[in-house]
Structures are given as structure tokens and as C-alpha cells.
Amino acid sequence: MIDFLSKGGILVVPILLCSVLALAIFLERVIRFARLRIGGNGLVQKIGRHVKNGEDQQAYELAEKSNTPMGRILGQAMEVKDQDKETLETVIVHATDEEVRGLSRYLQALATIGNIAPLFGLLGTVLGMIKAFMVIQQMGGKVNAAVLAGGIWEAMLTTALGLTVALPTIVAHSYLVARLDKYEAQLQDGTVSFIKALGRRS
């Protein structure tokens, strides 16, 4: 296998590195998402009940102790709940964006890998074809079909490898982005419910 890959030239190395990095990022994010507790409606409802009953300290402590994205957002919101609505909404939006940025870590790198892997392959193919035509020139135009065919398949090898890395990487990126969008929607729904609870304070 190593001998086979070595025929693709020097650009096989960065393509293989891209595959290893993409796999590492995907597994790290999958594990991170699997362990994630957003702290959805259950937490929001409990905090909302405390807020409506005027039990602000209990609501704040519950948010802080939850150690979830939703809890951290609502904890920051509780700190400015008595200020004007614009300030409250600004804090909530900023806190939500901060949590989403943390969840989306490395996803841009994964997208970049999916884009550059086939380009590495294409570059390898171009370099390989250049070498093949240089051999033809050195042979004085007396083309040996076997030599020409061998040079071409070696040149095409990097393109195949690049696409082999890029396709699953793009699928993995799309999957993780879909998960991220779902979590972001849950956070937004929770913050809306919290704001409504503030409006119904007794």
C-alpha cells in the first residue's frame, strides 16, 4: 500500500495529513456533541418559574449550577434582568453567539480541508502529467504506450486520493453543521421563553 501511494508523488503526503486531521476533528466534535447537555426546556421552565415568583437568587443559582450552554446564557441574562430591554437582549445575543462559537470550533477547518484536498490532488495530477510529457520529449517522440499509460495513472492517483478525502470530509462537515444549527435553535427558543417569563413576573 505504501509503495502504491508513493507512486502518486510528494503531494500524497499533504493529502494523507488532511485525511488524518479531518478524522481527528470529526471525532472530537462528535464526542463533544455527544457529551453536550444544552439545558433546554426543562432548565428554562424551572428558571422561568423562579423568575415569575420573584425568586431571582434561586433562578440565578440554578442557572449557574447547571453548567450548560443554556444555563450560562441565562446566568448572564439574570445579571442584567432589571436593566432596559435593549441591554438584556444584547447580553443574551452576545452570550448565545459566544456559546455557538464554542460549539462550532474547528468546523471551519474541516470545511477548508474538504476544499483543499481535491486541489492538492489536482496539483499532483498536473505535476504528474508534466513529468509524463517530459519523458515523451526525452524519448524523441517515440512514444511507448506502456510508459505513457504508467505516467498517466500515477498522475491521476493524487486526484483520486484528494477526492477520496474530500467527499467524506464534506459530508462530515454538513452533519456537524446540522447538529450545530439544532443546538443554536434550542438556545434561541430557551432565551425567548426566558424573556417571556420576565414579562410575566408577579
Number of helices: 8
Number of strands: 0
Structural class: mainly alpha
Distance between the termini: 72 Å
Q: What is the share of helical residues?
A: over 70%
Main β-sheet: number of strands, strand sense, barrel status?
Answer: none
The SSE order reads HHHHHHHH
> Low-confidence parts lasting 5 or more residues at pLDDT below 50?
none
Mean pLDDT equals 86
Proportion in β-strands: under 5%
Shape: rod-shaped
Radius of gyration: 27 Å
Write the topology of this structure.
Elements (H helix, E strand, L loop, with lengths): L1 H5 L5 H24 L5 H12 L3 H11 L2 H11 L5 H19 L3 H32 L6 H55 L3
Description:
With 202 residues, the protein is mostly helical. It is 84% helix and 0% strand. The protein has eight helices and no strands. The chain has helices at residues 2-6, 12-35, 41-52, 56-66, 69-79, 85-103, 107-138, 145-199. Helix 3 runs parallel beside helix 8 (145-199), helix 4 (56-66) runs antiparallel to helix 5 (69-79) and helix 7 runs antiparallel to helix 8 (145-199).
Question: TL;DR?
Answer:
With 202 residues, the chain is mostly helical. The chain contains 8 helices and no strands. The longest helix is centred in the last third of the chain and has 55 residues.
Name the features.
202 residues, 8 helices, mainly alpha, single chain
